[in-house]
């Protein structure tokens, strides 16, 4: 079914009061632009992290339009590859690699709202504490230069 038809059906449900907001997942910039011609897009949920920036252009488009960008799986690759700059910055800040990865995302754009997986209370506490991790401009630039995988 074409995207415009799918979104038209969602718009009808929204008009009837059955749904409040419409979000998209795993879209391209072109698909986001097409969707915005049919509905108001509240959020986009694409995979994105310090090590996976395939959807950089989508994040930029969301930022320009004031649309929430919810990166999924924002931590796992950084934690499993906690070497090089990620590990160095984590050590400098006395933080975990996961916290550094989340801090980088939170500093990346004001529209970013990461959705890290949380399996335990300890993991939840670690993720929440990432909001207090403050990267220096040098640390952020170093992380930003880490090659995506």
Q: Main sheet, how many strands, which sense, barrel?
A: 3 strands, parallel
How many individual β-strands?
3
What is the residue-averaged pLDDT?
Answer: 91
Summarize the amount of helix as a percent range.
Answer: 40-55%
Structural class: mainly alpha
Strands ordered across the widest β-sheet: 1-2-3
The number of helical segments is 8
Q: Spans of 5+ residues with little confidence (pLDDT < 50)? A: none
Terminal-residue CA separation: 32 Å
Globally, the shape reads elongated
Strand content: 5-15%
- The radius of gyration is 17 Å
Summarize the structure.
The chain has eight helices and three strands; from the N terminus they run H-E-H-E-H-E-H-H-H-H-H. The chain has 149 residues and is mainly α. Strand 1, helix 2 (29-36) and strand 2 form a beta-alpha-beta unit.
Describe this structure in words.
It is elongated, with a radius of gyration of 17 Å. The mean pLDDT is 91. The chain has a three-stranded parallel sheet. It is mainly alpha-helical and 149 residues long. It has a domain at 73-149. Helix content is 50%, strand content 7%. It has helices spanning 3-15, 29-36, 56-65, 76-80, 84-93, 97-108, 121-129, 137-144; strands at residues 22-25, 41-45, 68-69. Helix 5 crosses helix 6.
């Amino acid at each position: 079914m074409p995207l415009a038809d799918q979104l038209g059906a969602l718009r009808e449900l929204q008009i009837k009061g059955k749904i409040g907001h419409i979000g998209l997942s795993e879209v391209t910039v072109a698909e986001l632009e097409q969707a915005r011609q049919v509905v108001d897009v509240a959020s986009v949920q694409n995979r994105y992290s310090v090590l996976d920036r395939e959807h950089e252009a989508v994040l930029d488009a969301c930022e320009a339009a004031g649309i929430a960008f919810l990166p999924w799986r924002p931590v796992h690759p950084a934690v499993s590859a906690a070497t090089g700059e990620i590990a160095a910055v984590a050590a400098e800040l006395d933080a975990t690699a996961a916290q550094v990865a989340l801090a980088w995302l939170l500093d990346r754009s004001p529209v970013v709202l990461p959705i890290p997986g949380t399996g335990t209370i300890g993991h939840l506490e670690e993720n929440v504490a990432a909001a207090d991790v403050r990267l220096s401009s040098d640390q952020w630039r170093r992380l930003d230069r880490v090659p995506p995988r």
